[in-house]
Amino acid sequence: MKTCTGIAAAAIATALAASAAQSGIMVAGNSSARICYAAAARQSDNRVDLRPCSLALDHDALTTRDRVATLVNRGIIYFHRADWDQALADFDAALAIDNNQPEAMLNKALTLLRRDRSGENAIPYFTRALELGTEAPAVAHYGRGLAHQLDGDLTDAYIDIRRASDLDPEWDAPRNDLSNFIVQPVG
After folding, report:
1. How many structural domains comprise the chain?
2. Which stretches are TPR repeats (predicted)?
């Protein structure tokens, strides 16, 4: 058995900034929904980029999948604008249509983590995103690791951050955070 000693709150805040919402969902065609996806994919925080998303949701004949995708993509733009409540409203609307949408789960978890600076509400969404096969498992593990760390569960934090680093060895944030842990045998 191993125990972990962790890092300071300032380092957690920095790491939270690095785990921005992502995992936009691609939509087909040249519609407003496609423009919305492009804005989410480039992590836009521009208010103007919300307009195509809203136009698509209000006026385009979207498939159920594209409606869910557009809600997630608009939520990502709201996330990057630090409008946590609007982002959560869009992720919740997407989950009301498809409660098994892993990217909606992941982005909701990231938003809760950023808004609350606590892992309590976010951890179940990270876990569910992983169970549903999110396209960004490294992000989900890293976010869940930060959530565990904020809640004082340093062992699970280390395990998840280590897993994120293993899944995406080129990603600096998890690899750097691992250097802040000291792993010692118990006993």
Report:
1. 2
2. 68-101
